[in-house]
Write a structure and sequence with these properties.
The protein is built from eleven helices and five strands, in the order αααααααααβββββαα. The protein is of the alpha+beta class and 250 residues long. Strands 1-2-3-4-5 form a five-stranded antiparallel β-sheet. The protein is globular, with a radius of gyration of 18 Å. The protein starts with 7 loop residues before the first helix and ends in a 16-residue tail after the last helix.
């Protein structure tokens, strides 16, 4: 089914976790998201290891949405542990495969549409395609800096909530110093659960970007927003014009 630019899925699943954060901690969380929330969250989970990543909390059986997230994480773990992808010159290939795996689970189009909000309705199809492509680059540009950045985290699958064709999978990343709740919001699309938002410690990726985009649109124009995204995408180019991070779009 087609979802409008609003947040019907969020309303059905509840807004209790989507609070705004203020102060230094809030700014730190927002900066964390601005560097590519999907890559950081999923790679943190992947680095936790197969045994932990596949285990639901005691007494809870994994539902279809949870199994979808677990399957994606398992695929990423296999890529990260593949000895054929660890040799010299293999980093870019591994990044491309990781990005494809994430893209197969998360709908960048749905995330971009929800992040742009009501402004999405006024765009033509070519404009929407351009915005989705730029938004995907914005999310994936820090893959290279995060692939090797996690070790020792443990993951607990806490359960899932389903409302019609929406689901929320609740997890928690646990290390010696912190415990961070991470919720995945998914939409049933063509019989498969596709992610459209990630909520880390109460901060929604989509809501965060919607706020950033709305501020730009209120103070300038959609053209200025596109230029802002293009500059960020251009900063991801090497001197020879090749991409430094993120690989190719999946």
């Amino acid at each position: 089914m087609t979802i409008g630019s609003g947040s019907r899925g969020d309303a059905q699943l509840g807004h209790g976790r989507g609070r705004e954060m203020t102060g230094d901690m809030g700014r730190a969380r927002m900066a964390w998201f601005s560097l590519g929330g999907i890559a950081r969250v999923l790679l943190a989970l992947a680095m936790a290891g197969v045994a932990v990543g596949a285990s639901p909390a005691p007494g809870r059986s994994a539902g279809p949405a949870t199994e979808a997230i677990q399957d994606t994480i398992s695929q990423m773990i296999r890529l990260l542990e593949d000895p054929n992808l660890k040799g010299p010159g293999k980093a870019e290939e591994r990044r491309r495969l990781l990005e494809k795996t994430i893209g197969n689970r998360f709908s960048y189009a749905e995330m971009a549409k929800r992040s742009l909000g009501d402004h999405w309705r006024g765009l033509t199809d070519p404009e929407r395609e351009e915005f989705v492509a730029l938004f995907q680059r914005l999310l994936s540009k820090t893959y290279a800096r995060t692939i090797e950045g996690y070790a020792g985290e443990q993951v607990q699958y806490l359960g899932e909530r389903v409302a019609e064709d929406f689901a929320e999978v609740r997890t928690k990343i646990v290390s010696a110093k912190v415990q961070i709740p991470v919720d995945y919001r998914l939409l049933l699309m063509a019989g498969d659960w596709r992610g459209y938002d990630i909520v880390v410690d109460g901060v929604s990726l989509v809501r965060n970007y919607r706020g950033q985009f709305s501020r730009i649109l209120r103070s300038s124009s959609y053209a200025e927003l596109l230029e802002h995204l293009r500059k960020k995408a251009a900063s991801d180019q090497g001197a020879d014009g090749s991409r430094r991070t993120g690989g190719e779009r999946s």
